[in-house]
Here is the input.
Amino acid sequence: MIDLRFPTALQIVLGIQIAEEDGVRCTSQKLADSLGVNASFVRKLLVPLSRDGIVAASQGKGGGVRLARKPETITLRDIYLTVTDEKKLWVARSDVPCQCVASANIVQFFERLAGEAEGLVLQMLANRTVADSVSEIRKLEMARLSGYVVSRTARNG
Here is the structure.
């Protein structure tokens, strides 16, 4: 089963920062609407993000969710490790019968392979911050909008 906690938590954190930059109050319901999920699901993901000091939530009339630290200090690795509870990226099958050289050694081989892959993924995520990611998303949005305007103008022109 594909684990969607990281991409969902990443969208939540980026959405919180974008809302902050745009001067919009961010709530779990607004986040849920943007994800197309139930607000209780968003709140479940906010628990570990809050526990690890990535987000902070306040209740009441002016309440909402905000980042607990500056976006330049939050890495995508931080978010990943927070919501996956150190679950391994890949896990070797342990129920392989020892029928040949490959099956007798596949678990140990695959654990090494998976460990190396996970190390590379975590290193890459550690090199990207929330601030970097929001900047990249804003550039993508500008390109999307300018492409839309150009194609719309081309159709009407």
